[in-house]
Amino acid sequence: MGIRNFNFILLLLLFLFSNGISGKEINGKNWTTHPDIKEIRSIYDRIEKEIKNKELASSKKEFEYSKPYKPTLKIAFFNKKHIICKYVEEMGSDDSAIKIEYYYDDLKALRFVFITGGSVNGSRLEHRLYFDSLGKKIWEIRKIVKGPGYTFPIEWPTEEFIWNPEKEFNG
């Protein structure tokens, strides 16, 4: 086999593995035990443990309310290499508020987003989004934990997410 054929096969295999074709798809029955989700959960667990143990530096910025859903609070958690591994924004309007927590891996890739929200009608939301190491959304689950519901998105628009927390926090 020539080097070109070898390189082609290697690239094809990398493509297949990175796109999940080789593994089981994530679904409503297996998402809590799926290896890709478990990997992301381990990133989340590690970061939360480091926060609890005060192993991460943090910086907070507060802002006056200026318009609906413009952040009034930003918090960045930095690892020992001064890379943001967790970024939090809180925002709201006259009748609702949300907190968005972003979790990044060691290569600065967004891996998990946890959104909690509430509204004046008593509704409470939990929304989770999981991303592979290339930033592709691999699973999303939304749950109204209390109340009749609200106009929070069914599928959260990923173009609104913070892909570069350093720029967002310092900008």
From TrEMBL:
Protein name as it appears in the record: Uncharacterized protein
UniProt source species: Leptospira broomii serovar Hurstbridge str. 5399
